[in-house]
Amino acid sequence: MRYRILIADDAAMNRALVKDILLKNLGDVSIVEAINGQDVMDIVHKVQVDLIILDLIMPVLDGYETLKLLKKSDVFRDIPVIVNSSITEIASIEQTLKEGAVDYFTKPLSVNDMNIILPLKAKNALRMYEQNHIINELNRQISQELKNANAFANIMLPKSNSLKGVELFIKYHPSLGIGGDFFDCVEQNGKVHFMVADVTGHGIAAGMASSMIKVLYRKSIEKEGILPHEVLEDMNSSIFHYFDFAGKDAYIAFTAFVGTIENNILSYSNAGQPYPMVYHHETEQFEKVHQDGFLVGMLEGISYETEQMQLKKDDFIFLYTDGLFSSGVSCDFCGWDKVFSLAKRLNQDLSKSPEGFLEEIFYAFHMIHKSNHTDFTDDVAMMLLRLT
User: Fold this and answer.
1) Are 308 and 382 part of one and the same domain?
2) Distance from the Cα of residue 86 to its chain's centroid
3) Is the pLDDT confidence value at 331 over 50?
4) Which one, of 189, 190, 207, 191, lies nearest residue 199 by Cα?
5) 226 and 186 within one domain
6) Inter-residue contact 6 to 30 (CB < 8 Å)
7) 63 Cβ neighbours under 8 A, 6+ residues apart
8) Pick from 88, 180, 184, 232: most CB atoms within 10 A?
């Protein structure tokens, strides 16, 4: 590609010398000249510049101020700048490098400077700029793909107005635009079936795996009379069946809590999910749903158990994934017990505003992470089911 190099120096002889060196040694380049910093800013606003050779002592706007303006700009900060100055003090060199210059050389130029050093510095700066440009473009494309994938994931989220006898409220926060946390809630064969799952890892691969899990889940609950533990066992069997054909490097595992609601009876089975909890409206008390189980996809032939709990009208079921309290540092507050404790303190808010309850839980853990100088490093999914 043809590069455009801007030489900024108030001395015409210096500009001519640098121009001659670059044209002889770099070949396919075009040269633009500026006599002060204001000229530099005017030029970069008009045409694309790939490298700036910048003198420090210039009229109108000197090199120091020009460098600061360039590096403060979202548009021009990535343009590499090589300072070319007669100032040899180490403090000046240090200042320009701290301000964002990629290199520095002094005038007058020696024979080695002209034949070797300056051409190499320019080539390296241009190569770095081109590589950064490619990386930025790839990042932009990936970011757009993540947005598209996240939009698709949001379409797949369950809808609260499509269920008989149950009202649904959800909060979803993927850590990388698309995540491996997944929930579903659907009416099938006269029952409300629901599941919260968390695929190991996060990002694009986890997001694709969560889509596969939804397909397996929906296929499994089509079987009339199927119980939650049978759903988990069916999905576990399917995982090993499909990935047996995919090769040894293909692997997927996830935690999951599977439940059904029928005639105010909650039937459930847990595969490694943090303990959900039930809010009993009549007593205004939370009760944790204490059951353990292996992750789906860890071992072939795993057995699970279905347990039941009697519920009443206006009771809530609260489910969440461990991304809510997972942290990059050890923390006494990071665990399901903290979720349980916090939920009990917010029980008055739950009946008034279920959405507000979820936001309060999320914000509280956001502040816990912030106090430990971290943020959510994993996907977060929360779901409330209210019996109506």
Assistant:
1) yes
2) 46
3) no
4) 207
5) yes
6) no
7) 8, 37, 54, 55, 56, 57, 83, 85, 96
8) 180
For residue 321, give the CATH number of its domain: 3.60.40.10
Asked if 214 and 221 count as a contact pair (C-beta separation under 8 A), the reply is no
CB 345 within 8 A of CB 130: no
Neighbours of 228 (CB within 10 A): 27
- Residue 152, domain member (yes or no): no
In terms of residues, how long is the chain? 388
Same domain, 161 and 129: no
Same domain, 192 and 130: no
Number of domains in the chain: 2
pLDDT in tens, 271-281: 999 999 999 99
Q: Are residues 62 and 211 located together in one domain of the fold?
A: no
Q: Which of 25-39, 325-339, 346-360 has the lowest mean pLDDT?
A: 325-339
| pTM of the shown model | 0.63
Picking from 85, 117, 141, the residue at the C-terminal end of a domain is 141
Burial 52-75 (b: 16+ CB within 10 A, else e): bbbbbebeebbbbbbbebbeeeee
| The residue to which tokens 């979820």 are assigned | 358
149 occurs within a structural domain = no
**Is residue 91 domain-shared with residue 183, that is, in the same domain?**
no
Closest Cα partner for 213 from 164, 272, 258, 270?
Answer: 258
Question: Are 278 and 372 in a shared domain?
Answer: yes
DSSP type of residue 272: B
Nearest to 231 by CA among 254, 212, 256: 256
More confident residue, 213 or 31: 31
Digit-coded pLDDT (tens) for 276-327? 999 999 998 999 999 999 999 888 899 999 999 999 999 999 999 888 887 5
State the Cα–Cα distance between residues 249 and 242, nearest whole angstrom: 13
- Strand, helix or coil at 374? coil
Q: Rounded CA gap, 328 and 332, in Å?
A: 13
Q: Which domain holds residue 25?
A: 3-141
